[in-house]
Amino acid sequence: MITEALVLSAILFVIGTFGVLVRRNAIIMFLCIELQLNAVNLSFVAFSRMFGIEGQIFVFFVMTVAAAEAAVGLAIIISIFRHYETVNVDSFNLLKW
Amino acid sequence: MLSATFLFYLFAGLAIGGAIGVVMAKSPVGSLLFMVTALAAMAGTFVLLEAHFLAAIQIIVYAGAIMVLFLFVIMLLNLGHDYEKDLKGGAFAVVSFGVIGGIAGLRAQQLGATGMQDGPGGAAIDALIAEHGAVGAIATELYTTYVVPFEITGILLLVAIVGALVLAKREV
Predict the structure, then answer these.
(1) SS3 for A25?
(2) Mean pLDDT, to the nearest integer, of B94-108?
(3) What is the pTM of this model?
(4) Residues in chain A closer than 8 A to B142 (CB atoms)
(5) Is residue B26 helix, strand or coil?
(6) What CA–CA distance (Å, rounded) separates A74 from B171?
(7) ipTM rounded to 2 decimals
(8) Which residues between 19 and 58 in chain A have a beta carbon less than 8 angstroms from any beta carbon of chain B?
């Protein structure tokens, strides 16, 4: 079960990375980042079957930080939308070299 | 009676299907609903790995609260019918990420196979759950050894609330 969970976690992480790099809609990129966080959580839970309860406690902290990050990130998306009237990240090129 | 292995593969299939749906769905709301599917399936795998409390907060906090927050933002910005095709990269990106995924999966498989299968950690967690219950197993450790990080988490959430309000306010 541990091995299968680690493989599932790796596959989900790669799908999340693919989504971040391929999609241009800021909200969907953000969803894919959440997917990556969840994949890492899954591997923490799997490793807690090997090394003890600390893995699950770390997942608890990751979930809290993810909730805070989602709130702040969505607020940033709202304020960007006010300026540009879009959430397509290709239109935010002010800091592009 | 379904076997644990069968249930694990069922949840794994649902999670991978949901994840692919998140990336491929055209409408943001569709993406979000696929994400809820993936999160619920991952909560199922948490249960199979004996992390009952984490499975519960995965459903309540992630699939409940955070996804509703995303849905509110999509509604607020009126992006619900934003069907423009925004996928960058074609078959090359899919193939290269398939190769990367294969390598990562093989590596993870080696890592799991060389580890202690259900080693001391699994037995220790089972003993903790038997003694304190599913919530108590985490809580005893969280409120003794990790009480300082736990309190700092409260400050982090307060800062996040204030930050989100300041950022999303109309006139800053």
Answers:
(1) strand
(2) 81
(3) 0.88
(4) 57, 60
(5) coil
(6) 17
(7) 0.90
(8) 19, 21-25, 27-28, 30-32, 34-35, 38, 41-43, 45-57
